[in-house]
Amino acid sequence: MAECKQCGRLVTGDEIGLTKKLVNRGAEEFMCIDCLAAYFRVTPDLLREKIEQYRRMGCTLFASK
Ligand SMILES: [Zn+2]
Predict the structure, then answer these.
(1) Which residue range is the domain that position 20 belongs to?
(2) Predicted pLDDT of residue 32
(3) For ligand 1, a single-atom ion, which residues have Cβ within 5 Å?
(4) Beta-strand (E) ranges in 5-51?
(5) For residues 39 and 60, what is the distance between their CA atoms, to the nearest angstrom?
(6) Single pTM value for the model
C-alpha cells in the first residue's frame, strides 16, 4: 500500500499509474488525484479523463477494467 506524499491518503493503482505517467516513470513516491491536479493546476476530472484515455490506449500502467 502506498500513500500520497502530499496529503497521506492511500493511493489507488490508477493514481500510482498516473503519477508514473505524468511525473516520473520510476517514481517511488506517489500522489493522489487531487494532489496531482493541484500540482499540475488542472481539475481532478481532467485527470480522470486522462486515466480513461490511457487505459483505452492499452497503457500498462493502468489496469484494464
Ligand atoms: Zn494527496
Answers:
(1) 1-65
(2) 98
(3) 4, 6-7, 32, 35
(4) none
(5) 23
(6) 0.90
Chain centroid, CA 63 distance in Å: 12
Q: What CATH number did the domain enclosing 26 receive?
A: 1.10.10
Structure-block grid coordinates of residue 29: 513516491
Question: Is pLDDT of 54 > 90?
Answer: yes
At position 27, the amino acid (one-letter code) is A
3-46 pLDDT, tens digit each: 999 999 999 999 999 999 999 999 999 999 999 999 999 999 99
- Residues 21 and 33: beta-carbon distance below 8 Å: no
Count of domains forming the chain: 1
Among all chains, which residue has been given the C-alpha cell 502530499? 6
pLDDT, position 64: 74
- What is the CA(65)–ligand 1 centre distance, in A? 24
